[in-house]
Batch of 3 targets.
Target 1
Amino acid sequence: MATMGAKTKAVWYCTSCGNESSKWMGRCPACGEWNTMVEKTLDTGVKRARDTASGSVRKPQRLKDIQSLDEPRVSLGNAEVDRILGGGIVPGSLVLIGGEPGIGKSTLSLQIPLGCPDLKTLYVTGEESVKQVKMRADRLGGDASECLIYSETCIENVLEEAEAVQPQLMIVDSVQTMYIGAVDSTPGSVTQIKEVAATLLRFAKESGVAVILIGHITKDGYIAGPKILEHIVDVVLQFEGENRGSYRILRSIKNRFGSTAELAVFEMTGAGLRAVLNPSELLVPMHEQGLSGTAIAAMLDGTRSFLFEVQALVSSAVYGTAQRSATGYDVRRLNMLLAVLEKRAGFHLSAKDVFLNMAGGLRVTDPACDLAVICAVLSSNFDFAIPSDVCFAGEVGLSGEIRPVGQTDRRINEAARLGFSRIFVSAFSSLEQKTPEGIRIIKVADVPALVKNLFK
Ligand code: TYD
Ligand code: MG
């Protein structure tokens, strides 16, 4: 009979990309690097894991006997970041802030201790010198008397200092620059990133220090680490936005201690990131009447609803094939909507160039914006301005039908609050509330009905 004792098995793995193989190879077949395969022994035996703290084995417990505990939370002094985290940071948790280079991750992380002087913070910088951090802090303003800046990239050293300092919060900027001396691989490689994150998670859990880890992701979505990191960490906050534009969206995409339907809008100013508490008021321009090619969409993102402007420019194609381009919007979705307009409503747009832009450098995925997109396109095509007191919330289907969207009531409320007097929604929307004062809800079932109502 087979025994249940520990068995070991040797595998080879690539120190550059983490690829595993059962035999040694000179060149890793996954990443193409030479001489990166090293041997690792895997323990395949079935052994009982022991609780690290008490050394005893864990037993199943009855659900009703387990005491629930309210996670204590520490405020980071930044109302928007606290809200996204679910009411402050949980001690002993590991939070990843991901985003493209230059989007504002370091700025936001430094603003936390600057805005919360009593929070004992250890800011580990692997990218900038302490002088550079100081210059940035001077620019951002604020007072961080309890904040220590530490320029270091070796995690063993970082943890040693952290043990000595006992901070409430540790910020590590960035995971790509950190390395563990015991792991034979270059900083920024997948192996190092995984190990650094796992080590920091263990440190956070054992010491109760909340850790914010910064990670870069590249524009083409190439896994520079954070994708695999998402499985390791407790919370993932993602920074989004066009680098050219000044608006940034911070979105929670994973949260073991709260909802992921949270989002905050920031504006990058000369003095750092400023929370935009009322996004609609910035994104809906108050230009004069009579500008064609714009339509206002009532969008919902996370638990936030806000209105913003969709801009379209339709012109006769100069070259043989028409150009389609979209900023902040999926160009395939734009093509689909144009096809619907052509096929289901008889508008001839195939020989036209169509350019689409979302105001403020926003990136929009909410299907409720479809209606505003087709209205902006038609408005530009006919050079017919849509009155500035009208907004839209509806999805457009392949047969030209206008479909209801989630939480239409909330969108209507936001539109009414901002003083819009008409909102177009799907005829199939089921509204639960009384229509708010001052706004008229116009229900349309399909694209022809919309056109008849709007452009008559
Ligand atoms: P940064 O936080 O360094 O980005 P990341 O850490 O995500 O790579 O932000 C970089 C950009 O922000 C840089 O282009 C300069 C700009 N910025 C401001 O506009 N205002 C400021 O007060 C600061 C600190 C940066
Ligand atoms: Mg940075």
Target 2
Amino acid sequence: MNHEKNECVIITIDMRIDLMTLFPDLAENVFNDALFAIARSKDLMDYRVHNIRDYTHDKHRTVDDYPFGGGAGMLMKPEPIFEAVEDVLSDKGPDEEVPIVLMTPQGEKLTHKLVQEFASYKRLVIICGHYEGVDERVREHLVTHEVSIGDYVLSGGELPAFVLCDAISRLIPGVLGSDESAQTDSYADGLLEYPQYTRPPVYRGWEVPEVLLSGHHGNVDKWRRKESLKRTMERRPDLLEGFEYSKADLKLLKEIQNEGDK
Ligand code: ADE
């Protein structure tokens, strides 16, 4: 209640993310800084951190155990993970759909499309795996998505989870300074971003392309689109498979081709 004005102030958080981790201090520190802190302070994002160890029932607060059948390393036990997620989701509405995401190198590779899908939900649960993996029953009977941030193995799911949270948060309207920034990012329209320059116009003899200083918006837009196409062709031709070129794009492609032929 706002007592001065004697009226109710209703705060609506755009999205809530519950992070299940063995390193809650690390997560709290991350969510209290940079983009996360801004999103929190604007009441656009609610990041809640939960210590999986708080859901153990033994004296040693055991979260891992040896794999049946032998083998190297330890596995995360199912019970604390199930109990943690079930507790966090106990206030969920009956029809509310909440993805439960396990960060794992075995998961689906994270793309802009997948980030957009997650950003469309009001809530998300993220489980950070550790040790040599998690008991398979967590994958089979609890999680709805398994996500990898790339073909390399990290020591745990926390850093990948922060990557996912960052990518989602910057798509929530109002989190970034200008909503346009998220739309012109690399991948947002299927192309890599064009080269960008700021002052000074000449640095160590290296000049900013003249067109960007011209003040002619039409020419600037055309130059940027052409550079995006060129850069994507050079660096990530895989992104152009199935890409829907406009008529103007096809004209630019011809220009690029002609320049290359010279
Ligand atoms: N945990 C360890 N490595 C990972 C990766 N590459 N992506 C997601 N989670 C992980």
Target 3
Amino acid sequence: MSIENATPVPAPDAAVRRYVADAARAIQLPGDVAEVLETSYREVNVQVPLRRDDGSLLVAQGYRVQHNGARGPYKGGLRYHPEADLQEIRALAALMTWKTALLDLPFGGAKGGIQVDPTQLSARELQSLTRTFALSLSHVLGAYRDIPAPDVNTNAQVMAWFMDAYSSRHGYTPAAVTGKPVELGGAPGREPATGRGLVYVVSAAARRWGWDLAGRRVVIEGFGNVGSWVAREFAALGARVIAVSDVHGGVFNDTGLDVAGLVDAVARGGSVRDADVAFTPISGEELLTLDCDVLVPAALGGSITAANATSINASVVAEGANHPVTPDADSILADRGVRVIPDILANGGGVTGSYFEWTQNIQQFQWREERFNTELRDRLERAHTAVAEYAESNGCTYRLAAYAIALGRVGSAVRTRGYI
Ligand code: NAD
């Protein structure tokens, strides 16, 4: 894990570049197109000063990176984290370009964040920081320019403050931000969409492989928005969630954890370790090596590296987090026959849900959650089928297939728009 693990993890932008280079070779992407896709279109670095409750001053760094907008307005989350530096945000912005293209959404890729530890801030401080950040970026944002969304340590409340600050300068613009509270134009179904979408993708893959998910052993690293919804959805399908973890450590129960009890503990502000359910405590490192059918890393990047990839005992790794598997680990897993469902497919439910929210805001219309879920499943199944067919006909991994499809689409948009 990038916070706790001492193993050196390759820079995330180097990882994304390597996947892109492999895919560019596979589809013989013209050199001029590859060159323009190698760097970001725009990288904004802003100072975000905050007057703390005790009167002291904190000057945080904020970022917004817009990687490529050939297929539509930039789209990507905002992360508040002590390790959210420009290099990490740059990699995540590029990932969004490939993700939106693979899912065939009319968006480009962006990412942003503030290098800060939000757990050390009061609600007033968090709101003030968010408003200052929104105003200092507002000239490069907008419903048809760049649309932020929640990511690590940001949520619907943060998006509400962000939208309010943006609207104070540009007029009421709910479509300028997604992941908002439902009463402010958020879409019912958006909050669970990433975790639920991951389970739709794994279900589609399982059907293709002739697997029945009922009774399968599932292990999840991270129990925030993504991880907790993955747990709920797998449990609803009759799978056995045998272990989950958060930043405080892991919990294990071979007969299956009581997922509702874990969700309750976290909703009360605690850790999974505080849950009133039957479990044996385990460390985050042990959790990753448990014998299971599906392992879902859903915390931060770089948790599966060359150092622990040989100890992974899962049949499938479905990437809930962004870039949780390093390229070296990816090769080791492929050689060992572990199937990896890459982040740009597996966690694409979040941005797909954001796309639904954005279109509904533009039309001032709201779908019911059932329709949201049906459309979500349909989009993700189509993306999965495209990846599976490409991988089967080219004898390659899902990751290479996903990048090849995405790169082909973005490359074609870059050319036909006359961008180069
Ligand atoms: P979150 O902040 O809600 O949850 C993060 C979880 O990870 C928390 O439970 C935290 O305790 C845990 N965690 C942090 N460090 C850990 C460690 N060292 N070991 C174990 N657990 C640890 O964030 P989220 O929205 O669930 O996002 C998780 C990942 O999914 C991120 O990589 C994010 O970029 C990615 N993602 C999120 C969305 C979305 O819609 N929320 C969409 C696509 C991708």
